[in-house]
Write a structure and sequence with these properties.
single chain; alpha+beta; two-stranded antiparallel sheet; 19 strands; globular
């Protein structure tokens, strides 16, 4: 889908003429471009994009025994890890909205999770936002909890910084952005040999990671597509551990836009552990977003953990959102109570009702300990008297 760009046609023509001239000079001289040449091209390319929205669907396949899932308990804590004994396949639908200029991100996903206690895949909704200062996440449910969960993060950055869902977008529009943590373009070298990918001769760039993990990270760049990344490889011990292939379509206003990507995450034995295939349904370039797009109003029933605020015990504040939108504070002594108890009681009431037996238990243990201590002191005194008598 093509959308008009609010940039003077002459300025647009100049920018693409510069990129075309650079590419043409490489062809004529037969000299491979340097990192500086590529970054200059990316810098010109990046100035065209202020914001972006991408709507895409992903098909995921987890190979047998490769997915760790959690079996819920009554309290949703101390859950048991289980491994399905067959392949798991499901699809997700995601929308990513990024305001590059104001450093704001929203990720919405309608996905699936494996529920071990029900031996099946169930729907789950996930939302992550960052408004430039505060990051929040919301899950409709999790593998270990059958109720909505919200989090206010302590760090001033998106919860999905470095997430795979953002990788194609940043490699397309902002290769040197701080959130593009998959590959460090400032610390790499150009490979001497090129490689043919999709009938195009591509340039290899390898990140200099030294002796760490006996591995390497390499991206392959297609000069014919404004130096777009068409492949990303991670190797360890000489074997490919993760490989991502990117495919682009030419937009007459914006140049090359990523429209499909495929990833294979490998085991050490070379077999595929997780395979994903994503296809973009539609996209918008340079849209305007309302401020509330980058915020979450936690819905009723959500249990929220606010990592930016501290409770009386020094841990993060937790609360429940009531039907009327008000907060039901969760006292430190109530944190391990079942969700239903929290929903049906006022703040502090659940703890007082359930903590009585525990308090009496502590009292009994205290008296028993005191009794043993008194007995030990008495025996020591008696032994001392016997020694004196002898």
């Amino acid at each position: 889908m093509i959308f008009p760009l609010k940039v003077p046609p002459l300025a647009r023509l100049v920018l693409f003429s510069i990129a075309s001239a650079i590419t043409l000079s490489f062809r004529l001289t037969a000299q491979p471009p340097t990192i500086e040449d590529m970054t200059n091209n990316w810098r010109q390319h990046k100035s065209l994009f202020k914001s972006v929205e991408m709507d895409f669907k992903t098909r995921k396949t987890y190979a047998k025994g490769s997915m760790s899932v959690i079996k819920p308990t009554e309290k949703g804590l101390n859950a048991q890890v289980e491994m399905p004994d067959h392949d798991i396949e499901f699809s997700t639908h995601s929308i990513v909205r990024i305001d590059f200029e104001n450093d704001r991100i929203q990720l919405e996903t309608q996905g699936k999770i494996w529920k071990a206690d029900r031996s099946g895949v169930e729907d789950v909704n996930y939302v992550s936002v960052f408004d430039g200062a505060t990051a929040k996440t919301w899950w409709s449910s999790t593998p270990s909890r059958d109720f909505p969960n919200g989090t206010i993060l302590k760090k001033a950055d998106s919860a999905d910084s470095g997430a795979f869902e953002l990788l194609p977008i940043f490699l397309n529009f902002r290769k040197q952005d701080k959130r593009q943590i998959w590959f460090d373009f400032s610390n790499c070298t150009v490979l001497s040999e090129s490689q043919k990918i999709d009938d195009q001769m591509c340039i290899g760039i390898r990140e200099n990671i030294g002796e760490r993990a006996n591995g390497s990270k390499t991206v392959w760049i297609d000069p014919e597509k404004d130096f777009s990344v068409v492949r990303l490889e991670y190797r360890a011990g000489g074997s490919i551990m993760n490989q991502v292939a990117f495919h682009y379509a030419l937009d007459r206003d914006f140049g090359w836009i990523v429209t499909r990507w495929h990833s294979d995450l490998m085991r050490m034995d070379g077999t595929v552990r997780l395979s994903t295939e994503s296809v973009v349904d539609k996209y918008r370039v340079n849209p305007s977003f309302a401020p509330d797009v980058f915020d979450i109003q936690f819905p009723p029933g959500t249990r929220v953990k606010d990592n930016k605020s501290k409770a009386s015990d020094g841990k993060s504040v937790e609360y429940l959102i009531r039907e009327d939108g008000k907060k039901r504070e969760i006292a430190p002594s109530e944190r391990r109570l079942p969700y239903k108890t929290l929903v049906n009681t006022e703040s502090g009431a659940g703890a007082s009702k359930s903590s009585g037996p525990f308090r009496w238990g502590f009292v009994v243990v205290g008296f028993i300990s005191l009794g043993f201590l008194s007995l030990a002191v008495l025996l020591r005194v008696l032994r001392a008297k016997r020694r004196r008598g002898t």
